């Protein structure tokens, strides 16, 4: 089927089973928001919830709220709400700290498990195109461990097979690539790793709430991910950690703070990890920020990842089709795989003047983002993105390209955050 009119898109919206959920988000007028893969939109409920946490729980409850408002239980309670979205079970996930910090914890735990199994394994394998913080954290850990630990980077998923061997401790991959939107085969790569005695760490930053994930069914070992992208937890909201039940109590993790202690208020001088995934907590959590995560998760609880995935694929297919049919005479190269099995919930195109094109789009109210080199990136969040918005976004892109308006000097100025 080819889409030729805006009316066809309006009709798709009319029949969209997720249509009503959009009303649960506060989106500004005049904006087509295609950057929910970087910072999710604000759930309407978050304003009242923030006021309640600040005025009532903090303001009135004061320190009593650790018990009476459930603050202490929050990491685990939110973890349980998040678990179904990533194919995890009850009490297998905690929400805590940042993705970078959680990656350090699980990577260190995985390496420690390997030290007990086969200490000669000292290589962490990953992709050069992985999100930089993942590589930096792995480099930092290898440097801290010394003793010959190192990071081995491959240039494409096809090279992973040859790079994972008898010297490898951990295969650390991001399930959906932040730049290309390419999705990896979690079950297949985990099987490959396990067959060679290697543990897997999966970064789900661009997967949680974006695509169905089956951590237990894929037999993955460790996973981490953020809540401020597709999960709509708010700027800098805490991340999450999952550890396979079989490995959870094999070791603790080096950021062994008191929140992961078996009896935090016994104030013992010696660290003793609590049983279960709570040993992946470190210290006192940012309660105000963490409370916002629940507003996003409560919207997901009204649908499921299969329904979201079906719409996500329709949205990304439509965007690709319209850009190619209506902007095809411009130098745009699709970077994201066409194959559904290999596509996340974003679409990236390369354009020689990508930075300026994106700035011009943002000025016209189409908010996506730019990633080096030359990539313009559009995130599609089925909870609130409509088919009509896809049509309108492509029409604005076509106008920006046809008119050459993006060539204006003001679109070349770089901000700190792109
Ligand atoms: C967004 C993202 C991060 C962000 O990590 P922070 O610690 O929250 O800054 C890490 N890894 C990947 C793959 C990401 O997409």
User: How far from one another are the termini?
Assistant: 36 Å
| Low-pLDDT segments | none
Mean pLDDT, as a whole number? 97
What is the string of helix and strand elements?
Answer: HEEEHHHEHEHEHEHEEEHHHEEHEEEH
| Cofactors, ions and other ligands in the entry | pyridoxal-5'-phosphate
What is the strand arrangement across the widest sheet?
Answer: 4-10-9-8-7-5-6
What structural class do the secondary elements suggest?
alpha/beta
Backbone shape:
globular
Number of helices: 13
**Beta strand count:** 15
Short description:
By secondary structure, the chain is α/β, with parallel strands linked by helices.
What does this structure look like?
By secondary structure, this protein is an alpha/beta fold. The protein contains 13 helices and 15 strands. A seven-stranded mixed beta sheet has the order 4-10-9-8-7-5-6, with helices on both faces. Strands 11-12-15-14 form a four-stranded antiparallel beta sheet, covered by helices on one side. Strands 1-3 form a two-stranded antiparallel sheet. The two termini are 36 Å apart. The chain binds pyridoxal-5'-phosphate. Pyridoxal-5'-phosphate is lined by residues 98-100, 131, 133-134, 174, 178, 203, 205-206, 226, 239.
